[in-house]
Design goal:
Blueprint lengths: L6 H12 L6 H34 L6 H19 L3
């Protein structure tokens, strides 16, 4: 398959290969497609979670503001722990 790129994208790909970040233009394109696929998967998962939450809300299964704050605080601390240098 051949793909036509704009001059700006060709320059971008060339710079990525010249910097040594990738070994070939094919690797740059492959990585871009892999990330696009990953993004689509993430969007599908998020849509599923939103639909699940919406269904729960319509069924009256709502969480209190206090429970939400507690959950967010726990998640924030876990996130900070993962980001802090070892």
């Amino acid at each position: 398959m051949n793909v036509a790129l704009t001059a700006a994208f060709e320059d971008f790909v060339r710079r990525k290969v010249e910097s040594g970040e990738f070994r070939s233009p094919d690797e740059v394109v492959f990585e871009g497609l892999r990330l696009l696929q990953q993004q689509e998967q993430w969007k599908a998962e998020v849509r599923g979670k939103i639909d699940e939450g919406w269904d729960q809300a319509k069924a009256g299964k709502l969480r209190s503001p206090e429970a939400m704050r507690e959950d967010l605080a726990v998640r924030k601390e876990a996130w900070k722990a993962r980001r802090s240098p070892a």
